[in-house]
Amino acid sequence: MLKQTVSEKKILEYIFGIVAPGTALREAIDKIQEAKLGALIVLGNPVDLKDVIGGGFELNTVYSPQKVYELSKMDGGIILSTDIKTIYGANIQLQPNYSIQTDESGTRHQAAHRVAQQKGNLVVAVSERRNKITIYYGKFRYMLNEIGDLLTKSSQAITALEKYSIAIEKNHINLSILEFDNMVTLYDIVECVRMYGLLFRMSEELIEYMAELGSEGRLIKIQYEEIMLNKNETFNALIKDYQVNNEKAEKIRVRLKSLTKEELLDDEKIVSLLGFDTDITNLDEKIEPRGYGLLSNITKISRKDREILVKEFSNVQSILMSTASDIAKLKGVSKFKAEHISKSLKRIKNKTIVDRD
Fold first, then answer.
1. Which of 94, 95, 129, 355 is most open to solvent, judged by the fewest CB atoms within 10 Å of its CB?
2. What domains are defined for the chain?
3. How many percent of the chain have pLDDT more than 90?
4. Beta strand 77-80 pairing with 133-137
5. d(Cα 273, Cα 293) in Å, to the nearest integer?
6. Handedness of CA 266, 268, 271, 273 (dihedral sign)
């Protein structure tokens, strides 16, 4: 999949919101495809389109998929309101400026491409011969995928997402052990961040598949949400633990998502992302976590509580050595909460010992 700009992603979100399975317009398109018919559908007000349309007849009737299907049996185009609630007219001839460049071959698709470019409207062309759906929106063009192909790609993406998720869990277990032993190196962090990068990259791809699948992607969406549960939060904690440039974790996550797969395999790219100087930094360099990851494993404490603890104790080793009495002395932390944190830390210690074995 080609890397997309932010504007292209927004355009696709808009397009899928109109033509994905489960939408009113897609129901009509599916009927047209099943009957092996072609169609040319323009979204917009006829008044605004008067310089590119001619002939046909006015309807101004309430939209229904069945009506659009019946109207597609005629040769001309169909004009719908942008909210897909009104059928303005049918059997309309599109008469765009023929000097506008298009690389489409069929008459229907050429007209659709030119109208979209000239007027900026969304135009749907259903190919009778190829049985394909092409969407034109301004200069943007997108050919919808077959549902079966999308489901296959989504299934493969889910498998890859699970693989990266499992790798991240293993990395976190390993990091916990190393943090308790005070033996974390920059290499360990780079490996963990890399897995997050691959996960987020695959996640972006899967989000697009799900958007295009619409109602057909319900099961995929459930699987996706289960895999991605708390991933942003655990990544943010990792970054806050080990970064040296004090940049917001959310911004680093955005920058990580923008890296290509090749760049994710480049250690220096990730080291730089964390704020380290790539000229003088050694991957074997030992680094000390601040404690955000450790404290994120404790329930019933707020973000503010975690900030207070990190500010007071500075690193994981100091947090681990703290007693309930030490924690209770902190402003804003009650004696009851201090006991809860202390007991939770002991449970985490025991779990880490089990994981090590």
1. 129
2. 1-144 (3.40.1700.10), 148-274 (1.20.1260.110), 292-355 (1.10.150.20)
3. 89
4. unpaired
5. 19
6. negative
